[in-house]
């Protein structure tokens, strides 16, 4: 029997057939998916009728099915199906302290069931629990996505979120970064509830000097251009990008800075109408070019913006996915829901107008070369952003905003891997990459909503077929 060794390059541009060795026995793989269309997220093309083999949690063979010779412990017929890299959710939260630790842990299954094989935790107070979950996942005793985490957020004195590292002076910034390095976090998340402009910029400068990746919110007392030039690696949400699109950004920033000395400092929500009214295409083009030049990524989180903007009209009482959200997590939604019900009609109308404006920024950033990362902002206290499904919603909105399905898929796969510095082992389907895969019943390049048509999820080389995923859902359903 002839055995062929096949390899797929990063972009899927070339398939290389190895030499035939007569009478050589076929290697036994852990998993083989045969006759499947492989989605190349780099080129936006489908490689038809491929066979993908997995061993030891890695992709070890990719090539035309007609040439494949193999023995496998498990096989999946991919005929008529599409195989793509597992999705990355680049903005989630695990938080709420010990009382919500078990409820947070249940969300791991929800991510996996919806095709998310990697998440980036953007700050909370469950760091040691997250590390324990990662160890259990690595040991094969817990099913869930790979987790990158920032650990505790950095913020100013009297920070809003429990567990935050509160900084004001350069020495306090240094101590906070020391503690994060001891924890061996994957990046630094900066928050904006109380941090001063000086401490914010100093955190970026010190973290960059240590080789630590920085990302986060941004106080309106700082310009995005200053943060970008200091080395900010990513900006979360679009409130901060939008301010930099104002023709009056400098004067608006000065107004916010002056208000810091008063009993009632101005925050971003107070300033957004003025920012909206002074939007400038020329200013937008300048900041997008600066972000692209300095490699500052953006995480639009369109889905949570849409959900919150519509909360006064849709209380989500009949959402089917509520059945899988722990009641303790659901209880954290009450504050935002009550606030939305009290909002004047004019406030709701402006919020919806603002979110529509945010949608227009996405294709402009893409065209300018800004790296876009798909993130949902799901987690405790973020109302009705259901783990897993909300990232699927984010992809739909990115396409509605003007991205192609291929661009949206890159934002949720390869871009995340590149941002976290692991593109050598994740983000595409290629020999040597981690076997974190999503098998779909329809082509996501033809319709982005086909990411919901899940036949199987492969995580760390283990295949969870539809029946397995249904059992995982049943296990976390509220009794």
From TrEMBL:
<dbReference type="GO" id="GO:0016810">
    <property type="term" value="F:hydrolase activity, acting on carbon-nitrogen (but not peptide) bonds"/>
</dbReference>
<keyword id="KW-0732">Signal</keyword>
<dbReference type="InterPro" id="IPR011059">
    <property type="entry name" value="Metal-dep_hydrolase_composite"/>
</dbReference>
<feature type="signal peptide">
    <location>
        <begin position="1"/>
        <end position="22"/>
    </location>
</feature>
<protein>
    <submittedName>
        <fullName>Amidohydrolase</fullName>
    </submittedName>
</protein>
<feature type="domain" description="Amidohydrolase-related">
    <location>
        <begin position="82"/>
        <end position="462"/>
    </location>
</feature>
<dbReference type="InterPro" id="IPR032466">
    <property type="entry name" value="Metal_Hydrolase"/>
</dbReference>
<dbReference type="InterPro" id="IPR006680">
    <property type="entry name" value="Amidohydro-rel"/>
</dbReference>
<dbReference type="Pfam" id="PF01979">
    <property type="entry name" value="Amidohydro_1"/>
</dbReference>
<dbReference type="InterPro" id="IPR051781">
    <property type="entry name" value="Metallo-dep_Hydrolase"/>
</dbReference>
